[in-house]
Amino acid sequence: MHHAPVAAVSNPGDDDGLMRISRLPAPLVRQQGGVTKDWVVLLDEDQPRPVAWRVHARFAGYLIGRLATLIDDPSALATLENRLDGEHFTMEARTLFSDIIRTARGHASRQEATRPLPPEHNGDA
Fold it and tell me: What total number of domains does the chain contain?
């Protein structure tokens, strides 16, 4: 079985609908318009009809980088949420941005939950 590197992944069996970005196994890689599409972005996994986009490695890397920025910078995440609420986006863009926000929030929450407490909060002084 092929095990591909994955970014921004929810745990298998979780029904949290997080975005998944994963390298495709060789039999699923396609050439489209002269571009090798060797990664997949899965969106709306919690919906009856999830979306899967084959993408180029550079776009997958870009999305992973943007997610990392949003996880590390709550103000950037809030800015994206505010834009999503107030601007007119296509349905595809709204789906992408909504999943980016949910994924970033989920990862930020998990990071916060596993971060050790400072000494003044855990009795070590």
Answer: 1
